[in-house]
Amino acid sequence: MLETKQRYKSDFINNKNIKIIFFLAILLTALLLFAFFRDRDTLITNRQANILYTNNKIEKLILDGPYIHIKTATNRYKIYKNAINKTAFFEKYPVYVVENNSNFYDFLSFIIILITLGLLFRFLKENRDIQMKQFESANNNMDTNVETTSIKPIISNITFNDVAGIKDVKEELEEIIDFLRNPKKYHKLGIRLPKGVLLSGPPGVGKTLISKAVAGEANVPFFYQSGASFVHIYVGIGAKRVSELFQKAKQNAPSIVFIDEIDAVGKSRGEFRNDEREATLNQLLTEMDGFEDSSGVIVIGATNKIEMLDDALLRAGRFDRRIHISLPDLEDREKILKLYLKYKPHNVNIEDIAHMTVGFNSSALSTLINEATIYAMRNKRASVTTSDFEAVKEKVIFGKHKILSFTDEEREIQSIYQGAKAVIATWLDVEFDKIGIVNSHLNIQEQEILSKTALLSQIKVLLAGSVATRVRYNEQFTNAVSDISNAKDIAYKVVNEYSMTDSFTPSANEVEEILQESISELNRMLKTLDEALDKVSKYLLLYENITQEKCRDILRAIF
Ligand code: ADP
Predict the structure, then answer these.
(1) Does the CB atom of residue 335 touch ligand 1 within 6 A?
(2) Rounded distance from Cα 507 to ligand 1 centre (Å)
(3) What distance, in Å, lies between the first and last C-alpha atoms of the chain?
(4) Which of 300, 440, 500, 522 is the most core-located residue (most Cβ within 10 A)?
């Protein structure tokens, strides 16, 4: 892709074009200089000329077209021929006559302008031709100029051993690996597998790495494409690329197609139309609908903006398996650090480092280790120590890639916030896997049929954090933003979509009423659960995550 982009670029700015631009610039400069220096004499009035005349300042007079130029010892002036008493001036001072060559100058200017315009026209035409050629060859699928030929799979030698932590994610992907290894086994039993897996989560948590590991484990070819690379300026190129990609993947099946930053293609269509993106997205949908389960192609999409994806992509038969990867928690950070430090001479307390890197993603951890090693080396030490990490931590946090790292105060706020969600969810029987300080992703179990009570309980869980921090700190914080927005969404659906109120034509404030009632009830519940919240938030400060089981144990011990 990069190669082809550069090819386009070099087509555009080839040597010839550079020469033309250079030549044009010289011509224009010459024209400007010519106009500037051609006549710089100051135009003066009759009175000023007379003063020069009587003060004997004039050295000579030069007759040039409609002007008489007056030269003094220090300056040059000019005046209209008819504005002075010519006889008196000509008698007193020497007069020179300049051949009338202004026509020649005007002619020269005219020629220069013509040449400039001609070259400019040719330059624009040539560029248009190049772009037309690119467009046409894309349309005709002529492989000469467009990047379609560059779609090649890689053979991944990465395995799950190279991916530290994220055990749940690995488990979820085991089945897909097994399918890719032995698709026939699944076909015989008529088992359908998802065509697409969507990995969502913040950047740098290993979405690409784990996908490569799936390919490596299953020993199948891996086609990497970034979503942005599909979307071109010209309508149709992206769609062509998508169809070429799937064609190649099918030829190489079983195989994996990995589309990084799929939101670049699959962004919700919304009010701003973008024909190229839409054409590309439609092609992607068609391809995914078109291939049989038996084709042996699995599409893995990665995004950190799942909420922005077009619903069409998430519909059954497309990316119907979704896996969220969160920032690594304490335990995972320890595993990642251990993996990265495996071949480095060190004397480091990994647990301590894991504790001081709340909010770091895997790539930030890798940068941190690298910096610490460099620091140790500069200080002429053969092995890295914990203090090297402390010395470079700030540098990594405030470095090129800004890392979301909580301060102690922020961790405390989060522990109350997420702790309250965990306690209320457990109290109201809303199931979840884990709730954590950095992983605000509440994995509420999805069900086909939900009761109104269940939906109202979900709203309460989502609002519990902000109610609890308000009680504790008498303050509101921005960490509640996505939970509040989700709570509002559910309340809106309860009223307007599921018609779970007394009236089928609900009034505008019914959504508000549901939210306010939830808040009043939460205030009451949190009073009863005060001690539990204390314990859970302390636990969170220590371990970052809490499972529902642990939370139940804490509640049971109190009630
Ligand atoms: P994403 O696709 O989510 O943005 P990447 O897969 O590109 O993240 O990972 C970023 C960097 O962090 C890579 O160098 C990758 O090898 C490393 N990395 C990410 N997750 C892990 C992990 N679980 N174990 C080991 N290294 C990881």
Answers:
(1) no
(2) 49
(3) 61
(4) 300
Nearest to 328, CA basis, from 373, 371, 365: 365
- pTM of the predicted structure, to 2 decimals: 0.63
Ligand 1 centroid – CA 354 distance (Å) = 17
Give the atom of ligand 1 at the shortest distance from the alpha carbon of 335.
24
| Residues 209 and 158 sit within 8 Å (Cβ to Cβ) | yes
For the Cβ of 180 lying below 6 angstroms from any atom of ligand 1, the answer is no
> From the CA of 204, how far away is ligand 1's center (Å)?
5
CB of 213 closer than 6 angstroms to any ligand 1 atom: no
pLDDT score of 142 more than 60: no
C-alpha to C-alpha distance for 244 and 280, rounded to whole angstroms: 12
In this structure, the residue with its CA closest to atom 10 of ligand 1 is 204
pLDDT at 554 > cutoff 50: yes
CB-based contact 176:193 (threshold 8 Å):
yes
More confident residue, 26 or 248: 248
Beta bridge partners of 221: 155
Q: What distance in Å separates the CA atoms of residue 317 and residue 294, rounded to the nearest whole number? A: 13
Kindly give the distance from the C-alpha atom of residue 207 to the centroid of ligand 1, in angstroms, as a whole number: 7
Neighbours of 323 (CB within 10 A): 17
The CA distance from 481 to 489, in Å, is 12
Q: How many helices (DSSP H) and strands (DSSP E) are in the chain? A: 23, 15
* Mean pLDDT, residues 24-46 taken together: 74
- Please name the residues in contact with 39: beta carbons below 8 A apart, sequence gap of 6 or more: 78
Domains of the chain: 154-324 (3.40.50.300), 330-398 (1.10.8.60), 408-558 (1.20.58.760)
Compute the chain's Rg from CA coordinates. Answer: 37
- Residue 118 region by backbone torsions, left for phi larger than 0, else alpha for psi between -120 and 50, else beta: alpha
Task: Please tell me the distance from the alpha carbon of residue 227 to that of residue 127, in angstroms, as a whole number.
Answer: 27
Question: 55 CA distance to ligand 1 centroid (A)?
Answer: 88
Mean pLDDT of 80-106: 77
Looking at ligand 1, which atom is closest to the CA of residue 209?
A: 6
Q: How far is the CA of 308 from the centre of ligand 1 (A)?
A: 23
d(CA 146, CA 143): 6
Phi, psi of 269 (to 5 degrees): -65, -35
Q: Find out whether 61 and 95 touch, Cβ atoms under 8 Å.
A: yes
Pocket test for ligand 1, best of 209, 324, 329, 361 (most atoms within 8 A of CB): 209
Note whether 417 and 439 are within 8 A (CB).
Answer: no
Please state which of the ranges 5-19, 232-246, 263-277, 487-501 shows the lowest mean pLDDT.
5-19
- List the residue whose alpha carbon is closest to atom 16 of ligand 1: 209
User: Within a 10 A sphere around the Cβ of 244, how many other Cβ atoms?
Assistant: 18
Segment holding 67, helix H or strand E: strand 67-72
The C-alpha angle 448, 454, 459, rounded to 5 degrees, equals 115
